[in-house]
Amino acid sequence: MTSFPPAPKAAGRRRREDPDLRAPVTGRARYRGLDRQPIGRVLFALQKTLAELLALLVPVECVCCNAEDTVLCGSCAKRVRQLCREPFRAEQEAPALVDVDGTAKIGVVAAGPYRDELAQCLLSFKHYGQWRLAGVLATCLGKAVASATGGQQGYRLVPVPTSTSAFAKRGFSPVHLLLLWMRLRRMHPQCPALDALVKTARPIRHGLSRFSPGNLVAWLANVVLGRDAGNDQGGQKGLGRGGRASRVRGSMRVRHRWSKELKGARCILIDDVLTTGATLAEAARAVTAAGGVVCGAVVLAATRPPAYASVVTGDDPRVVDKTKSKNKRLKDE
Fold first, then answer.
1. 130: closest CA among 171, 84, 97?
2. Which residues contact residue 90 at a Cβ distance below 8 angstroms, ignoring those fewer than 6 apart?
């Protein structure tokens, strides 16, 4: 048996290690060598100079740890990805999605729990205009969509619309922006987004309820005591299960131009945060009334994640698994 002679070593150079024997690189490279082309080095220097100038003119800090010159540092971005590593089922923790007999109306897949770095990123993304966080959040949402669909085709991603006052205040819709980012990165080309839902005008009874004696007394008390009386009355923050359900009841409908395409289509609702499930229940009602088939929902975060949540493998988004909450005592079955 003959063997090839070893290759001669280059003088003055160290012997390089076989790249196949190295451990696979799982993360993104943090360092890069100098470009061999002069134009490449010039462009790299110009890009670095523009980045430093932008950081000087518009200083930014990490939304989680306040690190300078970055909206989200590497360690915090890694923590967000860890929180969204295993999507779970969260419909049993939403009271508005559970019937009296304990069965869920629709299945909901959450990308991660609404806490720590994920909650901070969501708050900064929605309320402080940090649109550059859309890249990290869209990746987490896309992973949850893949877990819900199981790689199957034929689904329509229907985003839950935001209110007019919230859109006017933010200037964008968080869910629609995440879906746009997913489409640009071609995460799920087999599941197109269908902007079919729209907010309807609030019924007259809800508008008149703001001038009830109880609300007027509360407003006068806030003025006299010096409390903040300018809170957003159109949002659902601070409302309970009944208040949220009453506020969103009959608040959505399907656009007329999408009625024909939506009829008979398998739809998956997309929302940002799952609290009581009242918004998803209203969206499911509007889609079902227009002839669509609601197969489930996907949210970016759940406020009350189950302690022993089942990881969705994508067999059927409509399959419901019972879970137990962290703040509930476990019972023997």
1. 171
2. 108, 109, 110, 274, 299, 302, 304, 305, 306, 309, 323
Query: What residues have CB less than 8 Å from 215, skipping those under 6 apart?
Result: 209
DSSP-based three-state secondary structure for 253: strand
- Predicted confidence at residue 119, as pLDDT, reads 93
Rounded to the nearest 5°, which phi and psi values hold at 261?
Answer: -70, -30
Predicted confidence at residue 306, as pLDDT, reads: 64
Q: Which helix (H) or strand (E) holds 113?
A: strand 108-113
Question: What is the β-pairing status of strands 293-302 and 108-113?
Answer: parallel
Residue 213's Cα: distance from chain center in Å? Answer: 39
Q: From the centroid of its chain, how far is CA 269?
A: 12
On the 0-12 / 13-18 / 19+ scale of CB atoms within 10 A, 53 is: exposed
Q: Quick one: tokens of 123? A: 């708050």
CA angle 279, 150, 322 (to 5 degrees): 55
pLDDT of residue 213: 65
Instruction: Tell me the range of 34-48, 72-86, 210-224 where mean pLDDT is highest.
Output: 72-86
For residue 299, what pLDDT band results from cuts at 50, 70 and 90? very high
> What are the tokens at 267?
């739809």
The angle formed by the CA atoms of residues 115, 118 and 120, to the nearest 5 degrees, is: 85
Residue whose token pair is 């968080």: 174
CA distance 216 to 28: 57
C-alpha 171/C-alpha 323 separation (Å) is 37
Q: Residue 63 corresponds to which tokens in the numbers above?
A: 């939304």
